[in-house]
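Session log. Operator J.P. requested a structure for one protein chain; no other inputs attached. Running the standard single-chain path with token output.
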Amino acid sequence: MEGSLLSLIQKSLMIFTRELLLLYCLAQVAGFHLTEIFFFKFCCDHTLDELKQKSIASCQSWRAAGRPRSGPTFDLYRKDKAAYRNIIRSRQHNKKLFYTNDLHEA
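Structure written below.
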């Protein structure tokens, strides 16, 4: 059982890595820099990671509770999901508004 799960995880990582490399190559060909790609820019942000983990945890507890459509479990699930989505949208919006020269100044 553990061997098959490990094998599945390794295959998934290989596919993810290959697609990530393809995305990088396509972005370079199109003339984008890494800072212009949303995924790379915010992948290491701790606030975003924490909100994502909270959203995942509340979603799992909501599913374990039988996916209720009302009540405290549902409210927490919706609140955490909305907070995660809102911070992603605000960062995408801010990315379009502000230009930084951080890479050139480093």
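Operator note: Residues 35-106 form one domain.
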